[in-house]
Amino acid sequence: MSDASPLHRPAPARPAGSGAGEARSLIASLAPLLEEWLPRQRWFAGKGRPLTGFAPVAVTELLPPGRAESPASPGLLHLLVRARQGAPGRPAGPGDDCYQLLLGAAEALPPHLAPARIGRPEHGPLRGLTVYEGLADPRLATLLLERLRVPGRLGPLTFSREADAAVPTGLAPRLIGAEQSNSSTVYGERLILKLFRRVGPGVNPDLELPRALARAGCARVPAPVAWFEAAAGEAAADGTAEPMTLGVLQPYLAGSTDGWRLALDSLARAAGTGFAAEARALGAAVGEVHLALAEALPTVVLRRPQLEHLAAAMGQRLDAAAEAVPALRPYHAALRETYALLPDLGRAGRTWRAQRIHGDLHLGQVLRTAADGRWSLIDFEGEPARPLAERRRPQPVARDVAGMLRSFDYAAAVGGTDGGADGSDWATSARTAFCEGYAAVHHDPGEDAGLLRAHEIDKAVYEVLYEARHRPDWLPVPLAAVRRLAAGPRVTGAAPA
Ligand SMILES: Nc1ncnc2c1ncn2[C@@H]1O[C@H](COP(=O)(O)OP(=O)(O)O)[C@@H](O)[C@H]1O
Ligand SMILES: O=P(O)(O)O[C@H]1O[C@H](CO)[C@@H](O[C@H]2O[C@H](CO)[C@@H](O)[C@H](O)[C@H]2O)[C@H](O)[C@H]1O
Predict the structure, then answer these.
(1) CA of 364 to the centre of ligand 2 (A)
(2) Where is this region: Disordered (predicted)?
(3) Predicted confidence (pLDDT) per residue in 142-159, tens digit
(4) Which of 41, 206, 347, 420 is deepest in the core (most CB within 10 A)?
């Protein structure tokens, strides 16, 4: 880079707050590029609504520790920006989604960074440089790990580390996850840093729950090593009320395979040996995590009024999904009738318990290590589309059980072929075994048949919306489940949903 590189002018190099006007100028110059690039990212939550503007929340440049700005080592630009969607005219504000972006800028991109290109701003502090996805650049990804090694603050960013944990140096970064809700970088096959993309005020459950589980001695979840947040209030240009969790560093389970891959492999085997042993062990692992979460964090009792509230929330989600996806409408009335029965579960003083749960449990969120065949759970963020406050509320464990049962159905629908195992038999056997494994350490999910059925419907409805937005080709998978669930009651262990 030349000495004249605008990256090293003070404007973007300082935290916002000390140069809010400069941050605005930077974001304004990037806006035309982001309008084109952001909607193409899998993690972009606002698909289908036009982007009409951006506003900076915070702009920070990360430099190598102990080194001042230098033309020879440009830093990692850390941006928090609000994306305005919908009708133009209104300035972006606190009601709009806030995204975490990590950008690099260079005069010319080496070939290995060509796929990471975002574009060249025509004006502003980065004019003349090519802006690119910074995480794809090992040199910039290393800056982030280096910063996480040392607790402390950098402008609006706060870096923290568990007191007894160490972050080794010299770990080579590798970006994974084009098809995910967030972005993750693996360092030296030993650590993985997950960077949340759509961020909001309040601790992210993907930091909160694994830390609580680690403190409770539960070894089913990789324990956070370090994390970083954006400060609340005056550090953010728009006065955000609580700190926002931005990234979590945790041990990388090298040599592990996720449950989705294992399920598809099992379905592809013509002999159809099934998945029962794995599903039973998985049920026990989930039960263990639920027990530990109920010990570590507050639980609440659900009586009829709370069940009414639950049914109303499910009904609202159904209404919104049917509004957005016309194919759901023929089942709307039948599903609503099922929800209407939910409050009756609280008749005659019968109570249920709600606690903190995983919240988006499926086969892609469970990893089995090859060495000992042990299951671990990851990604406690909850359903990314839901507001953070809602995801942090105690919920019935049936929600997680339902999530995994739906996932067996997904695997059977996607991987059950003529040459391999029969999808329907495979799913029935996996569901039954999962529930048996769960019952061995917790309680029999079949005792919650009504609650489970309502949550399976709620999950399938969520999936219809998710697939319509992200993978329209997969929409028939949850729609088929909705059709079956709308047709009649079903309890655990019987025919697959
Ligand atoms: N601790 C870990 N060890 C090994 N692989 C992991 C670990 N955490 C995440 N992964 C891998 O990264 C992928 C994405 O992680 P996840 O937390 O599910 O992110 P997202 O919210 O973006 O889906 C997982 O599907 C898994 O393959
Ligand atoms: O990105 P996340 O892992 O947090 O979760 C989202 O994406 C999932 C798909 O990657 C989606 O899961 C759905 O598809 C899975 C198969 O790809 C299937 O196993 C799940 O049962 C099904 O829900 C998940 O819903 C979504 O939140």
Answers:
(1) 7
(2) 1-21
(3) 999 999 999 999 999 999
(4) 206
